[in-house]
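Bench notes, afternoon.
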Amino acid sequence: MSERFTGRVAVITGGASGIGLAVATQIAKEGGTVALWDLDVGKLQIAQGESGASYVHAVDVTDGPRVTEALAATVERLGDVDIMVTSAGIIGPIKPISDLSYEEWRRVCTLNLDGTFLSCKAVVPGMRERGYGRIATVASIAGKEGVPGGSAYSASKAGVIGLTKTLGKELAAFGVTVNTITPGPTETAMVNDVSPETVERMKSTVPMGRIANAREISEVICFMVSEDCSFTTGAVFDASGGRANY
């Protein structure tokens, strides 16, 4: 087993399940010290045992002061954060924009985009000062293509891509890389929240004919946050089973 994360401290938002949990498990297996941030206290405790994480913190990533507090508590317990993976997110309701309420729109965009912004913003000053950092955001193929009935989700994930590209340029001269991944449909609780008919439609768009599992996505993310990913920043890593056209 590789030890490529030995001596590194990683924070994973949305780390109690899905892609976040898979990333946390892999980083811990490869020698990293991992903190899981999530809103679900019960799931956090279970995830800590499953992943080998050293610390868990219940936090709403859409609340700026709470994110700041979570970072301070994490640093006090584990040391300076070298890696941030922002995997907290929701799909939200699948319905035409004419039927989507503003409150539903805001809920999705606030978690997916604002939560990513606040998580990145918290760790950037320390990474820049120390001259090293790896940030991986989790976008979606929907952020590239748009998905009928998923206007809020698609728009929020497109925003994550734009944020990542901008932040990558801002930090390029400071030893900090910022990249995003655009998964296609993946076997997570998020996908389980939609109807079986929707899942079948998702599968039909993937040339490989199936949806991904969380481990497959985590393998790409782990490269993105490793020291090996040293000359790539502001990039979009496709993990869509061949669906992406660009």
